[in-house]
Design a protein that fits this description.
Layout lengths: L10 H10 L7 H8 L1 E2 L8 E2 L7 H8 L7 E5 L6 H15 L4 E5 L2 H18 L1 H4 L11 E3 L5 E6 L3 H4 L6 E5 L14 H7 L8 E6 L7 H7 L3 E8 L6 E2 L6 E2 L8 H6 L2 E3 L6 E2 L4 H6 L2 E7 L6 E5 L10 H11 L3 H11 L13 H5 L9 E2 L5 E8 L4 E9 L3 E10 L2 H8 L3 E3 L4 E2 L1 E7 L4 H10 L4 E6 L8 E5 L11 E5 L1 H12 L8 E2 L6 H7 L2 E8 L2 E8 L7 H15 L24 H7 L5
Parallel strand pairs: 3-8, 3-15, 4-6, 4-7, 7-8, 9-15, 16-20, 17-22, 19-26, 22-23, 23-25
Antiparallel strand pairs: 1-2, 5-6, 9-10, 9-14, 11-12, 12-13, 17-18, 18-19, 20-21, 24-25, 27-28
Helix pairs in contact: 2-4, 3-4, 12-13, 17-19
């Protein structure tokens, strides 16, 4: 019959035709639903992957195939399936677009564990991937496949491994847990990115729960061209809403335990005020969609997605409420709640500072003019390799302060000039800087020499590397045979003084406030607020510490403020309000009268 082959097709031709056959036209989410199998070892719901369970992941996975998109950023909480989404992307690449691929985890030890317990079980559980996986030719951190593809699994703490391979697909998992870069080694993310340069159609997938605002994932999200949030329809009014923690409510009656209050937690729609319960969530998620909430450029090479635990189908509203109630009084647990549950960076809001806050603290007093309420001036100098920054502040009762002059100069001669100028208030009364603390951390010899020559108003200062019981202490330089031996050195606890500055910056202008002159510039405001207070682990315990908000952020004027405040502390700024007060009059003591005279005066005493 016509159309039937007379001779069978040879096997080598069949294999050649199969090799040339184009891959199926599938999106990542479609591939996952058709081919991905979840095994009982790694999943609580083994069996075929179903997008309806976590529908918000479909848009994230499919964005990888968008020809315009080069980088996908997923800033997430825990318990939303982010790791499974990355495994689906890997499975798609292996089967549909075999290309050199690298996955980077925080440590090599974690990479080995995930390879053994997550990646290999996924390959074996999914028949289409199992047919390609070459188990006996693979190593734990180097998986080989029969379609000429390899998958490299690395730890971010192994710079040599990150810099040795050319790759098309780069997957970066939990980037906020990567070690910080050092002077000897570049940033691990930058090293990994370098490996993708040879591929014009490279794809980078980055995911993590956030830690601090200067962390990798939050910075990547803020730098993205487009930021998307997931919106769901309210089951009552039909309006598309974004689930936020502020709309999660529970009763606050006296006598109720945290568990009892949490069990009654519900979500209140911000549009209609109706109550949304856990059983409404599945239908809302299935009808939800990703919407652009911020568009930085018309290009969309970098697309970021953000989601919190309220969207998780695996977590009830009551669990979120209970976690907050039991965490809110413990800084370490509260940071974990902010990071892992709300997918927000941690920052101590009580000490939060920003440049707009500084500009709001401008007074009507111009630069170089001393305010009428001022009683003394102090200065602070931050020494750098090629310049120096200074700040001169006026001080009044109750630690009221205002900057009257700040700037950047080339050397000690300029510092000597500005600190010895006479500054005047509106009435013409003269003021001079009574004490200036000069940073000795960078160039100790020159700083000591300068302070010895100007010891009537200058002292060297150094920040303590550990927490102190007091704000400052006066010590003596011990450098036998060297410059500065025997000179007094001020040691400061910078964290304590930064707390004072931040708290007083929150006060409205007036008594007790931290203020700036009318001509203050944005660069000064930016540097003064370049740090924020976060939780860090030190010596097995969690402490709060001030750190730069971003890498290499200039914070010179903040250091100057710390030194000027420490100088004012030394000069007695805390008791200025007592000066000139009338002291209570002493009671006039009755003169001692000799016994005989007393008896004569009081003869009838008996």
């Amino acid at each position: 019959m016509k159309g039937i082959r007379k001779f069978a097709c040879p096997e080598y031709i069949r294999k050649s035709l199969a090799y040339l056959k184009p891959p199926e036209d599938l999106s990542v989410s479609e591939w996952a639903e058709k081919y991905r199998m979840l095994d009982s070892k790694t999943s609580a719901m083994p069996g075929p992957w179903r997008n309806w369970k976590t529908p918000y992941l479909a848009g994230i996975m499919d964005e990888v195939l968008n020809y315009e998109t080069e980088e996908v950023i997923f800033c997430k909480c825990t318990q939303v399936g982010g790791s499974e989404a990355m495994l689906n992307i890997l499975g798609y690449v292996i089967q549909q677009d075999p290309s050199p691929t690298m996955v980077v985890y925080p440590t090599e030890q974690l990479a080995q564990s995930i390879s053994t317990n997550r990646l290999v079980p996924m390959l074996k559980a999914s028949p289409s991937l199992s047919a390609l996986y070459m188990e006996f030719q693979s190593q734990k951190l180097e998986l080989q496949f029969s379609n000429n593809m390899y998958l490299s699994i690395e730890g971010s703490n192994s710079p040599s491994a990150l810099a040795s391979k050319a790759i098309k697909y780069l997957m970066l998992d939990e980037v906020d847990k990567y070690p910080a870069n050092t002077r000897k080694e570049a940033d691990p993310i930058a090293l990994a990115r370098e490996r993708t340069k040879t591929f014009a159609n490279r794809k980078i997938f980055m995911t993590s729960t956030p830690t601090i605002r200067s962390g990798h994932i939050w910075q990547a999200m803020e730098d993205a061209d487009i930021i998307k949030h997931y919106f769901v329809p309210c089951p009552h009014c039909g309006e598309m809403i974004e689930l936020t923690f502020n709309n999660l409510q529970w009763p606050d009656k006296a006598g109720m335990t945290a568990s009892e209050r949490a069990d009654m937690a519900v979500y209140v729609c911000q549009e209609c005020g109706s109550v949304i319960r856990d059983h409404d969530k599945d239908r809302m998620l299935r009808n939800g969609e990703w919407r652009t909430v911020q568009e930085n450029t018309k290009w969309k090479k970098k697309v970021a997605f953000w989601i919190n635990t309220l969207y998780s189908p695996f977590v009830r509203f009551s669990e979120i409420a209970f976690e907050f109630m039991t965490s809110k009084d413990d800084p370490e647990r509260l940071q974990n709640f902010k990071n892992s549950w709300l997918a927000e960076p941690w920052e101590d809001t009580a000490t939060h500072m920003d440049e707009d806050m500084v500009m709001d603290r401008q007074t009507d007093v111009p630069e170089y003019i001393v305010p009428d309420w001022a009683k003394m001036l102090t200065g602070g100098v931050d020494v750098q390799g090629n310049c120096m920054y200074y700040d001169i502040r006026a001080w009044g009762d109750y630690i009221t302060s205002q900057s009257i002059s700040h700037g950047q100069v080339s050397g000690f001669a300029d510092i000597e000039r500005v600190m010895n100028l006479t500054y005047r208030n509106a009435a013409g009364d003269p003021f001079v800087v009574q004490l200036c603390l000069v940073d000795s951390g960078y160039n100790a010899d020159d700083t000591y020499d300068f302070c010895i020559s100007n010891m009537d108003w200058a002292m060297p200062v150094k920040g303590s590397s550990t927490q102190m019981t007091s704000h400052y202490k006066i010590s003596t330089v011990n450098r036998p045979g060297k410059v500065g031996n025997g000179i007094q050195l001020i040691m400061t606890d910078g964290d304590k003084y930064k707390d004072m500055i931040a708290s007083r910056m929150h006060k409205p202008n007036g008594v007790g406030a931290w203020m700036v002159h009318a001509d203050c510039d944005r660069e000064y405001a930016r540097q003064v607020t370049a740090e924020h207070k976060i939780n860090i682990r030190s010596g097995g315990k969690v402490i709060q510490h001030w750190v730069p908000k971003t890498e290499h952020a200039d914070n010179h004027y903040l250091d100057c403020n710390v030194y000027a405040l420490a100088a004012a502390d030394i000069m007695g700024v805390r008791t200025l309000h007592l000066d000139g007060q009338d002291r209570p009059k002493e009671e006039k003591k009755q003169e001692q009268v000799p016994e005989e005279a007393w008896i004569r005066t009081n003869e009838e005493w008996f």
